[in-house]
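Teaching assistant's notes for section 4

Start the section by putting this record on the projector. Ask students to predict, before seeing the second block, whether L,D-TPase catalytic domain-containing protein will look compact or extended. Collect guesses on the board.
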Amino acid sequence: MYAAQPDGDMTIPAVNPAWLSDDKVRREVDYWSDEKPGTIIVDPWARYVYYILGDNRAIRYTAAVGKEGRGFAGTAYIPMKREWPRWTPTANMIKREPEVYEPLRGGMEGGLDNPLGARALYLYRNGRDTLYRIHGTPYPWTIGTADSSGCIRLYNQDSRDLYDRVETGAKVIVLRRDQFGRGTVPPGTPLPTPPADDLSVAAPEATADTEAGIEAGI
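Reveal the predicted structure now:
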């Protein structure tokens, strides 16, 4: 499942077993939801992404979540998705660390070192880009952790699996903190208590990737 995977002209590296644990592995789980199959539910507080299968079942992916990943909640949809997407650093990133990001001002082509990883799903609401992304990562050791920045990051193997399942136009629901654990227990059962908030919430930031014709976030 997490072995090296040939992918066009590239090969997704295997995930080191040391970075995998039973709770991080992609799996089918019980998930009580009335949403139709193909819907994605993101629980950033639990660091899980669920792909609804129907009949109270879902595929669960473990995520790394940055503060931007907690800066959006509610319903969105996916008008587009990209393989090996381009990435552009934000103006604030360039300002904070010009020695690192100034050379990338014009954008970074997709590849093994690209922060968006192997696949990216772009979330829109009311026809506008939310700047919220579900994407892969070249940093698999971060999966399952809270990070200082970024949206919702998956193992590249998982981003590819989810990408292949998701149809353009799919509905996405991002849960609030008070909805932590929703769907993981039967209806009528009290929801689990969310963990202490270990990240401050900030609105996601991005700059226009004019060559690709999309907004590029992290």
